[in-house]
Structures are given as structure tokens and as C-alpha cells.
From TrEMBL:
It catalyses: L-histidyl-[protein] + phosphoenolpyruvate = N(pros)-phospho-L-histidyl-[protein] + pyruvate. It comes from Ethanoligenens harbinense (strain DSM 18485 / JCM 12961 / CGMCC 1.5033 / YUAN-3). One of its GO terms (biological process) is phosphoenolpyruvate-dependent sugar phosphotransferase system. The chain holds residues 249 to 555 of 555 of the full protein. Signal peptide: none annotated. This is Phosphoenolpyruvate-protein phosphotransferase. General (non sugar-specific) component of the phosphoenolpyruvate-dependent sugar phosphotransferase system (sugar PTS). This major carbohydrate active-transport system catalyzes the phosphorylation of incoming sugar substrates concomitantly with their translocation across the cell membrane. Enzyme I transfers the phosphoryl group from phosphoenolpyruvate (PEP) to the phosphoryl carrier protein (HPr). Residues 6-293 form the PEP-utilising enzyme C-terminal domain. Keywords: Coiled coil, Cytoplasm, Kinase, Magnesium, Metal-binding, Phosphotransferase system, Pyruvate, Sugar transport, Transferase, Transport. It is found in: Cytoplasm. Its EC number is 2.7.3.9. Belongs to the PEP-utilizing enzyme family.
Length: 307
């Protein structure tokens, strides 16, 4: 089996009936790059930038961030690298943020909510990202979105950052893709409106499951209730893909569910454009894709989801 997987390296991810899908990797630290390259991922679909903040005693500087982003972009040699902006919250211990203690941190002050209230912190990260953008092919992705207004605020800040860099004669790429995570039910439901604002969506099934089913993803006691195969989740994913495509926005999945081999045919049937999975799962997913004959199963699969 391992030998079979080895042979997939360098090959195209194409189904028996000719449908292609991009298979990318998720990483959380710069050294994870070794596994990404070893497993021949087509790109990085989610680089969680939290490590920069969690591993530091104070706010990471623009320079520190720039070096990390540059390293990853250079190593990927022009393949798309999607870096997600800060996604911490009251549940993650980052003392210097001095976040208030919360009863219900998963539904609290976290991720983009912090960034929009702390434009200084947000802009430092965006400056580092745009400065690094000339070293490869960059996508920037924003977590925990619930509204169009948030995305418009983000885009305004992005424009400010670009104008500042221009004024300083600092070069940056003009093809940086901007995307958002679809990981709240609100974002999934209004994904038709959101699609008009961004280049891509990446569905975060870990949080989407937590918030849709009202099940704390950290609570082991609730394991039996945490069911990402729930029809509500699959219907939301299907809807998000349809809404994205209506407006020319490509759609990926970067939550754990993207690597579930029992759903590969389902995601292909929905027309998902990209699956981003942990590096160790990349070749397994690619094998599943090459075994699939989507045309044969698509109608039945989609009908069973809609009920
Ligand atoms: C998700 O919520 O599915 C996701 C990919 O983000 P994280 O697991 O980092 O919350
Ligand atoms: Mg998430």
C-alpha cells in the first residue's frame, strides 16, 4: 500500500472520469514544511499562524513574521500558500494580549474579532504577509467570519496596508488571493453574499460542526454528539460550494473532514475545488481521488444529502 502511495507523487489528482481537485496540506509550524514536501502536496491550504504568537513572550514583530512567511513561500516554489491570520481567543493562553476571562470562549472574543479591534496587531501581520508575497504565491485567509461587513472592514485595512507599503516603496505581489474561512453557520448561510467579496472560501469543518451542532469540540464528554457527517453539515458544505461557484469563488475544505476518505466522492460530487489535509493524509486522499468515478455516483450522493 505504501509503495502504491509513493507512486502517486508527481501524478495528477484526477478521477477516472476526468475531474480534477487540488490536494493541499495544513501546517502549524515552519518545520512542518518537510512533511509537505515529502508528501508532494500541491500547495498549503492552511498555515495556522498562531504559533508565532503562542511561542512568543510578546507580540511577534513584523520582521519575525516576515521571515517565517518568506521561508514557507520560498520552500513551496510558486505553489499556492494560504496563510491564515491570527486565530487566538480566550481559550488560548497568550498573556500579553490581556484578553478578558470568558465563560464561553469558543463563542467569545477571538480571531478576526480581536484583529478588527486591534488594527495595530492586524496591520503588523498584514504588512509582513504582503512583504513576503514576492517570494512565492500567497493567499491570505481570515478566520471566524460571520458577516459581509467584517469582510469589507478587512478589505479596507488591507488596502490601507498596501497603500502604506507603496508609499514606502516596498514591493509586494499584485496577485495575492484573499479568502475567508467558512466555519460559522452564519457564514455558510450567507455564502452567496460573501462570495462577491473574496477570491476563495475554505470551509473549516471543525468549527462549522461545533457551531452548527452546538457541541463544544474540546469537550471529550460530548464526543458522541460531535458528528461532522450530520446532514446539516453536508448540506451546508454543498450550499457553500454552489454559492461560491455562482460568483466565481473557488471553494476548499481545510477542516479535518476534508481528509475523510469515506467522503472524498461526496466532496468531488459537490464540486469542491481543493482539499487541504494534514501532510500525512495527502497521498491517501490522492489515492481516493484517482479511484473515484464521480459521474456514476454523483446524482445518488447529492440526492441523499438533500433528502
Ligand atoms: C476548522 O475550524 O475547521 C479549522 C480548520 O480551523 P481550526 O481547526 O484551526 O479552528
Ligand atoms: Mg476554526
Amino acid at each position: 500500500h505504501l509503495e502504491m502511495l509513493e507512486q502517486l507523487k508527481g501524478k495528477e489528482n484526477i478521477t477516472k472520469d476526468g475531474q480534477t481537485v487540488r490536494v493541499y496540506a495544513n501546517i502549524g509550524h515552519v518545520p512542518d514544511l518537510d512533511y509537505v514536501l515529502e508528501n508532494d502536496a500541491g500547495g498549503i491550504g492552511l498555515f495556522r499562524s498562531e504559533f508565532l504568537y503562542l511561542d512568543s513572550a510578546d507580540y511577534p514583530t513584523e520582521e519575525e513574521q516576515f521571515e517565517a512567511y518568506k521561508t514557507v513561500l520560498e520552500a513551496m516554489k510558486g505553489k499556492l500558500v494560504i496563510i491564515r491570520t491570527l486565530d487566538i481567543g480566550a481559550d488560548k493562553q497568550v498573556d500579553y494580549f490581556e484578553l478578558p476571562k470568558e465563560e464561553n470562549p469558543a463563542m467569545g472574543f477571538r480571531a478576526i474579532r480581536i484583529c478588527l479591534q486591534r488594527p495595530d496587531v492586524f496591520k503588523t501581520q498584514l504588512r509582513a504577509l504582503f512583504r513576503a508575497s514576492t517570494y512565492g504565491k500567497l493567499g491570505i485567509m481570515f478566520p471566524m467570519i460571520i458577516s459581509v461587513e467584517e469582510v469589507q472592514k478587512i478589505k479596507k485595512i488591507v488596502e490601507e496596508v498596501k497603500a502604506e507599503l507603496k508609499a514606502e516603496n516596498v514591493t509586494f505581489a499584485d496577485d495575492v488571493e484573499l479568502g475567508i474561512m467558512i466555519e460559522t453557520p452564519a457564514a455558510a448561510v450567507i455564502s452567496d453574499d460573501l462570495a462577491k467579496e473574496v477570491d476563495f472560501f475554505s470551509i473549516g469543518t471543525n468549527d462549522l460542526t461545533q457551531y452548527t451542532l452546538a457541541v463544544d469540540r474540546q469537550n471529550q464528554e460530548l464526543e458522541n454528539f460531535y458528528d461532522p457527517h450530520h446532514k446539516a453539515i453536508l448540506r451546508l458544505i454543498k450550499r457553500v460550494v454552489e454559492n461560491g461557484h455562482k460568483h466565481g469563488t473557488w471553494v476548499g475544505i481545510c477542516g479535518e473532514l476534508g481528509a475523510d476518505p469515506t467522503l472524498t466522492e461526496t466532496f468531488l460530487s459537490m464540486g469542491v475545488d481543493e482539499l487541504s489535509v494534514s501532510p500525512s493524509k495527502v497521498l491517501e486522499v490522492r489515492a481516493k481521488v484517482r479511484e473515484a468515478d464521480v459521474g456514476k455516483v454523483k446524482d445518488d450522493i447529492l440526492k441523499s444529502i438533500e433528502g
